[in-house]
TrEMBL record:
Organism, as annotated: candidate division WOR-3 bacterium
Source superkingdom: Bacteria
Species classification: Bacteria, Bacteria division WOR-3
Pfam families (UniProt xref): 2-Hacid_dh (PF00389), 2-Hacid_dh_C (PF02826)
Annotated Gene3D superfamilies: NAD(P)-binding Rossmann-like Domain
Protein name per the record: D-glycerate dehydrogenase
PANTHER family: D-ISOMER SPECIFIC 2-HYDROXYACID DEHYDROGENASE FAMILY PROTEIN (AFU_ORTHOLOGUE AFUA_6G10090) (PTHR42789)
Record keywords, A-Z: Amino-acid biosynthesis, NAD, Oxidoreductase
Keyword check for NAD: yes
Amino acid sequence: MKIYVTRQIPQAGIEPLGEHEVEIYEGDTPIGHQELIEKVRGADAVIPLLTDELDADVLGYAKKLKVVANYAVGYDNIDIEEATERGIVVTNTPDVLTQATAELAWALLFASARRIGEGERLVRQGKFKGWSPTLLLGQGIRGKTLGVVGAGRIGTRFALISRGFEMKVFYYDEERNEELERELGAKKVDISYLLHACDYVSIHLPLTRFTRHLIDAHQIFRMKPTAVLVNTSRGAIIDEKALAAALRGGKLAAAGLDVYENEPEVAPELLKCDNAVLAPHIGSATHEARSRMAELCANAVLDVFAGRMPSNIVNAQVWADRRQ
Ligand code: DGY
C-alpha cells in the first residue's frame, strides 16, 4: 500500500508503517494544492496536517484512497461529507493532546492575566528601570469566575486544572458535563451569560459552520472590561477584528491566543494589541503529545488496511455503510 505523509512527523508514526511504501513531503511549509492533489491521487492512505486542505476538489482526485489519518484532533481542514460519500475513513488524534492543550490554555491565561508578554518585551528592550509599585499590574486568578466554552475532552481537562485556584466555574456546551458538575460544582449556562459573568473565558470548541465567529463583536461586548479571553481551539471562532477593537478600546483586559483565523497570518489589528499574548499554534506541541499523535495516525492507517475500524474514526458512517 502507498502512504503519503504531508510533513515529517515523529518516527513513532512512521516506523509501524514499515512494510508499506511510505513517502514523506520534505518541505517545512505546507505542501502546495497541486502537489497534494497528485499525491492524493496515487495514495491508499494520507496522513495530512491541519494546514492541508482536503476539500471536495482534492478528494475528487482520490482514486484508491481508503483512509485520511489527520495529524490533529481538529478536522475542519477535511470535507468530512465528501470523504464519507467516497467511502474514505477519516481519523483524528483525540485524548493524546488533551493535557498538552489544556496546559497551554493555562499558560496563556496566566501570561495574559499577569501581562508576561508585555513584561518580556519591556525587559528585552532594556526598558526595565527597577521594581515599581505600579509596574504592569494585572488580574488575580484565585477565587475568580472561570468560563469554559466547549466542555469536551480539552475543555474538561482545562477546567479541572482550576481546582487549586478555587474558582467558580461556568461552562457552555450542548451536553451536560456531569464530571465538571460533580468535581467543581460547575454550572451549565448559555454563552451570553457565561461571557457576561466570567473573569476568565477559555474556548475549547471545534470549528464548524455553527461556531464560526461565535464570539463576535456583540458577544465580546457582553464581557467585563477586566476579563481575559483565551483561545487554543480554532481562530475563526472569534471575530479577530472585533476582539482587537475591544482590546484596544479598553473593553477587555487581555487575550491569550494560540490560533488565528487565517494562519499563519495574524490580523494586523491584533499584532498592535500589547495586551494580547500571541502564541504560534503550539497547543499540542510537547514531545509526548506529538509522538503519540503520530502513533495514533499510523495505527489508524494499519487498522483500515487490516479491515478493523479505528477507534478514533470521525466518520463512523463509512464503516456502517461498508457493512451493509
Ligand atoms: C489539533 O490537533 O487540532 C491542534 O490544533 C494541533 O495543535
